[in-house]
Amino acid sequence: MSTGAGELFRPLYREGGALRLLDQRLLPGDEVWLTLDEPEGVARAIRDMAVRGAPAIGVAAAYGAALSQRGPGTSSPRDRFDAARALLANSRPTAVNLFAALERMAERFEQLAASDAAVIERGLLEEADAIASEDIASCRRIGAAGAALLESGTTVLTHCNAGALATAGYGTALGVIRGAVAEGKSIRVLADETRPYLQGARLTAWELARDGIPVEILTDSMAGHFLSRGAVAAIVVGADRIAGNGDTANKIGTYTLGVLAKENGVPFYVAAPATTIDLACPDGAGIPIEERASSEVLSIGGRAIAPAGVTARHVAFDVTPARYITAIVTDEGICRAPYDASLAAAVERAASRRAAGAGSGAGSTYPL
Amino acid sequence: MSTGAGELFRPLYREGGALRLLDQRLLPGDEVWLTLDEPEGVARAIRDMAVRGAPAIGVAAAYGAALSQRGPGTSSPRDRFDAARALLANSRPTAVNLFAALERMAERFEQLAASDAAVIERGLLEEADAIASEDIASCRRIGAAGAALLESGTTVLTHCNAGALATAGYGTALGVIRGAVAEGKSIRVLADETRPYLQGARLTAWELARDGIPVEILTDSMAGHFLSRGAVAAIVVGADRIAGNGDTANKIGTYTLGVLAKENGVPFYVAAPATTIDLACPDGAGIPIEERASSEVLSIGGRAIAPAGVTARHVAFDVTPARYITAIVTDEGICRAPYDASLAAAVERAASRRAAGAGSGAGSTYPL
Predict the structure, then answer these.
(1) Rounded to two decimals, what is the model's pTM?
(2) How close A235 gets to chain B, by Cα (Å)?
(3) DSSP A253-278
């Protein structure tokens, strides 16, 4: 399939009985792949951010749950599955995709529970494969739907990395940009560097440059200047969890972009698969916000940037109220206000799609 | 004088015939002092940001102009002065204090021009001393005026470094905080780290910790989150140039804070001496905005943070329109909208003060 944006890059995939995962902490300097064959390693990779991005975390967690059955063990398949699930569920709190993936793996486990250990293991690995394949297909649908929102010859601003590296491949926010480029549109990207982890400078710039899509890096504090000067036609970001009313948790700094977009009359789009919508959360107040270690702010590349003894806050996500969001681009179409109705409908369409595809074999519903 | 905030720290001062200047690029790791005895070295220190902060740049430029007369030379005092002035005027474009200081030194030169070379040199050095002393006195008046705006037991957010290190001593925005602390108020500070130079993490944290004022560092993208959660009672920032209508150029990221403050109903204060007001600029559109090298964004502490070949924008300042500014705290009182009138009045009071103090000897008008 021609995407106008190079060959599909998959930052995590199964190879035999193990998960191969690109260690994103070392990009763009080094491209190191981890081979993980037990749930503990996968949970650690999620917690320590070797893999990050809500959809990618979901896919990694699915493989982590599947790997619970690997090798000889003294405890029962159920005990092994439950232990892995608990471990993975505690790795990071904000992205709902992780919990959705574990829930789906648990459903599959129940279907398989009466079978031989080997059948359970194979079935779980295939289910994780299906989640990965469907995630890529979801991203492509997000890209196709969102492409219409971007005009050729314009500059789009994005934050953090909601790209191929944040998913099983192709990306959500960057999927929308790739979708527009695939339609032949010329798009320039301004990428917020996204402190403290610099996902924008390290990852978004890396994968867009790889695809030949023009990208320039900004410090996070510069976005407002470019918005106020009319240099940005649209903002597109990803999401870690979308509440039923449209309030959206995403990487810290997203709320600020929403406020700046509204103030400057620039459209602000969120791009995410329907699995990111959490109807159990009526609004953003119910979304848990992860606070991480102060040390992750106080040093860069091992070098201290602040005086000894001074502390930092490290809030990893923020919530952008729905009123700042022009539209939410999902794999089930574009949702607009009132979001209660449009998001619920998207979730329903996703459930129907899954039910319709369930009999046709893992990963085959949507071509890659 | 008890400031409630430790002994006065002076980041640049004269020692005999040379300027001693703390190299702020190496803080907080190393405290290295430069000894500069010619205009070229001072211009380089300004351009390369060994010294930064609008008032401190003005003081440094004044000393740079005075040092033009140092040592034996083949050209006339006037030629030497003019060459130094041109060199210094080209060091950085945005902060108006630099031009105001050079203008004042030029006036003093005209008064001295008919005298012996030694008299000219001594006169210029004393004028630079006066500018430095008056800057500290200005900061103290800013602090005393602004202290009333902050309530005890609250958290104040600041951006970049508008502290002792950005002035001849005491600070503007941090002067307001020091003024409140001197009145016995308990103030906690959230300091934006302020990429790309990290003046907040490196300098603001350093000087507040030194004074025992509680400070925590945020990445620039976190300010919005804390504002939206009601955790910030006020924002106080410095200024590099204030147009006649109140539009204010300050470190990149300040505009964003102004927008966030308005959106969340939090007061947004600018603190600066009246020399920062440029009545020749009717509004922010007339303020030149410096764009610096991409490389200063693309590496931190010598370590690349982005893929090779990718560029960055490095806009060093932005303009906050007056409508976002609750008040401008000057050494001539607190200015409020309509700013055209209040700022012009402050400039007039400053001129009267200078005229009244002109006969009483350099630096003696305001006690340190």
Answers:
(1) 0.93
(2) 15
(3) THHHHHHHHHHHT--EEEE--GGGEE
